[in-house]
Amino acid sequence: MAFIDARIPVIFGSAADAGPNDALLCEGAGAPDAGRDWFLPDLAPGHPADCACCTPRNGAGQALARLMLARGRGTGLFFNRVIVVAVTGAGRAIVRQALASDPIASACFRAQPKQD
Predict the structure, then answer these.
(1) For the whole prediction, is pTM greater than 0.70?
(2) Residue 1 lies in a domain
(3) Can you tell me whether residue 24 is helix, strand or coil?
(4) What pLDDT shows up at residue 113?
(5) Is residue 60 part of a domain?
(6) Distances (CA, A) of 84 to 10, 24, 65, 74, 79
(7) Mean pLDDT, to the nearest integer, of 19-34?
(8) What span, in angstroms and rounded, lies between the C-alpha atoms of 53 and 70?
(9) Which of 88, 71, 89 has the alpha carbon at shortest distance from 80?
């Protein structure tokens, strides 16, 4: 029996790669907007160590959760995939870390190689 992975694909690319049904997750500082959110490449969680509510969460995981929440509530874009615009190695690493270990990001999103 084949396994269908219904999680939303996350692709590293540029803003030019995004289509009308794609959300953007951008490295840097900015205000969340419909179908667009921002994260800073800090690997530290928002609360002190051993905080049970968010120890594994980082800025990218939190931004992905905000995108998913807005999608589910109908207050943001109903996107089919997320294009990550990460300009540094640290930015790419924090998104990969979120996809691997963040409880919400790993449940809702999956990394997918860029397809040309």
Answers:
(1) yes
(2) no
(3) strand
(4) 76
(5) yes
(6) 7, 6, 14, 21, 13
(7) 91
(8) 21
(9) 71
Note the Cα 13 to chain centre separation in Å.
Answer: 13
Report the domain count for the chain: 1
Which residue type does 7 have?
Answer: R
Residue 32 lies in a domain: yes
For residue 27, what are the CA distances in angstroms to 2, 64, 74?
Answer: 35, 12, 24
Domain extent at residue 73: 8-111
| Residue 107 is assigned to a structural domain of this protein | yes
Measure the N-to-C terminal CA separation of the chain; round to a whole number of Å. Answer: 29
Q: What is the pLDDT of residues 36-84, one digit of tens each?
A: 988 888 755 555 555 555 556 789 999 999 999 999 999 989 999 999 9
